[in-house]
Design a protein that fits this description.
single chain, globular, binds pyridoxal-5'-phosphate
Length: 383
């Protein structure tokens, strides 16, 4: 490939070379679990599908190109990818994580990693000096989200990377909401970028997967070792689906983001809505940073707040026709959910209150339907 090829061109061509034996435009999906070896004790490029699979390699090559890494790894889910990162930790280590964090990551850190004596402190990632203050000599990992979940906070990645590296730790970020269309964290000095490929990379609510991409070969080798040793790899058919999804990633994210911006503006003026959290609005606390760091679009996730009870908010979420009531996000179908009872139900009640996951909060994943239909649907649901 030409190194100057654009993001959109690389999404289609890198890793998707024409099959040399048949000329097939789409590389075949390799379902083989095992591969013939040249001789006993000699290894070919592939030997066993947990350790490596041609279809997985192709998908990993595409994603590494889109995130600008030396390589990437594909996992059976986003949580398996985050878990792999935490497997680098040992008893006594400390993690600083964002307080605007996906509920599953919160649960992994507080209810699984704690079992092996790893300690966790949650901090506002938009405040790099608070992150520095929270770090101890045992802090080995800082974990943030490029766009926080569900309050849409946006950390300054370059500042965070500098602070974390000055103290000798690693920093990983979950770029599921952002996608490499908006931001490529490795370019900002971040060590590990993670995705729930279930979301925008796949893009069609039909597969579950996770990825890690890194800029450093030694780190890639270590994560590969842990993945191969524990086994949570992505199966070939799902790799194919994610590869196919990535070809239209740029197009989808840009179109969905434009609709999200229009909906955010409309919601901001709605009398029943007390607050709209969307990086494209001037009222968003990190709007300027998002404008500087994102590639001209602000993403297709948006959160808004009704000044209402948990029950009436749940009823509003259940009253939409096109926005389907479901967790997950990032697909062509629009989804609606109530973080307090759904995506963030695994938070302790005190942490939910502390971190602004209020009863009236509603999160939207804006899909590819037309703006007019989505706006009318929300109007009739929230009245
Ligand atoms: C931001 C974010 N990160 C990670 C995950 C976990 O990914 P998966 O469900 O693929 O395990 C999710 C799932 O909703 C998510 O929204």
């Amino acid at each position: 490939m030409n190194p100057n090829d654009s993001f959109r061109t690389r999404a289609i061509h890198v890793g998707n070379e024409v099959d040399p034996t048949t000329g097939a435009m789409i590389p075949p999906v390799h379902f083989a679990s095992t591969f013939q070896q040249p001789a006993a004790g000699e290894w070919g490029t592939f030997d066993y599908s947990r350790s490596g699979n041609p279809t997985r390699s192709q998908m990993q090559t595409t994603l590494a190109s889109l995130e600008g890494g030396v390589g990437s790894l594909a996992f059976s889910s986003g949580m398996a990818a985050i878990h792999c990162v935490t497997m680098m930790l040992k008893t006594g280590d400390h993690v600083v994580a964002g307080c605007d964090l996906y509920g599953g990551a919160y649960r992994l850190l507080h209810k699984v990693c704690n079992r092996s004596g790893v300690e966790v402190t949650l901090v506002d990632m938009t405040d790099a000096s608070a992150v520095a203050d929270a770090m101890t000599e045992n802090t080995k990992l800082v974990w943030a989200e490029t766009i926080g979940n569900p309050r849409m906070s946006i950390p300054n990645l370059r500042q965070l990377a500098d602070v974390v590296h000055a103290k000798g730790a690693l920093i990983g970020v979950d770029n599921t909401f952002g996608t490499p269309v908006l931001i490529r964290p490795l370019e900002h000095g971040i060590d590990i970028v993670m995705h729930s490929a279930t979301k925008y990379l796949g893009g069609h609510s039909d597969c579950l997967g996770g990825t890690l991409a890194v800029a450093d070969q030694n780190l890639l080798d270590e994560l590969y070792f842990l993945q191969n040793a524990t086994g949570a790899v992505l199966d070939p058919l799902t790799c194919f689906l994610v590869s196919r999804g990535m070809k239209t990633l740029d197009l989808r994210v840009r179109a969905q983001s434009e609709t999200a911006l229009s909906l955010a503006k409309w919601l901001e003026a709605h009398p029943r809505v007390s607050n709209v959290l969307y990086p494209g609005l001037e009222s968003h606390p990190q709007h300027r940073l998002a404008t500087e760091c994102f590639e001209g679009v602000y993403g297709a996730m948006l959160t808004f707040e009704l000044d209402d009870t948990i029950e009436r908010t749940a009823a509003a979420c259940g009253a939409t026709r096109l926005f389907r009531l479901a967790v997950s996000l990032g697909a062509v179908e629009s989804l609606i959910e109530q973080p307090a009872t759904m995506s963030h139900a695994s938070y302790d009640a005190t942490d939910r209150a502390r971190f602004g996951i209020t009863d009236g909060l509603i999160r939207l994943s804006v899909g590819l339907e037309s703006y007019d239909d989505l706006q009318a649907d929300l109007e009739q649901a929230i009245g």
